[in-house]
Amino acid sequence: MDIASRLAIIEQQIRQVENQKLQREQTLGAFWEHLPAIDPIIIRDRMLFLQNEIRTLENRKRALLQEREGLLVEVAILRDPPTGETGRN
């Protein structure tokens, strides 16, 4: 896959991760606002599960951003390679 295609896919994946994270945060917020009258252990477990999913999504986004940054650096180097030393002292 070429760099431009991968960068486009990364942007889509970042948007998808952000949307998923927002959904989890909204669900978690709903638990805090409207705790249903059911077993508090079940509620706690579900909230912990959502918090873990949010952390996982944050980590995924961080990895995608790092990959994007690396690809952009690679593109910059390919367009304008460093002129470095010729090895003479």
SSE pattern: HH
Average pLDDT for all residues: 88
Number of domains: 1
Strand content: under 5%
Radius of gyration, whole Å: 21 Å
Keywords: Coiled coil
Coiled coil: 7-74
Description of the structure:
The chain is mainly alpha-helical and 89 residues long. The chain has one domain (3-71). Helices cover 80% and strands 0% of the residues. The protein is built from two helices and no strands. The longest helix is centred in the last third of the chain and has 40 residues, at 40-79.
Question: Features of this protein?
Answer:
89 residues, mainly alpha, 2 helices, 80% helix
Give the SSE layout.
Blueprint lengths: L2 H31 L6 H40 L10
Question: TL;DR?
Answer:
With 89 residues, the chain is mainly α. The protein has 2 helices and no strands.
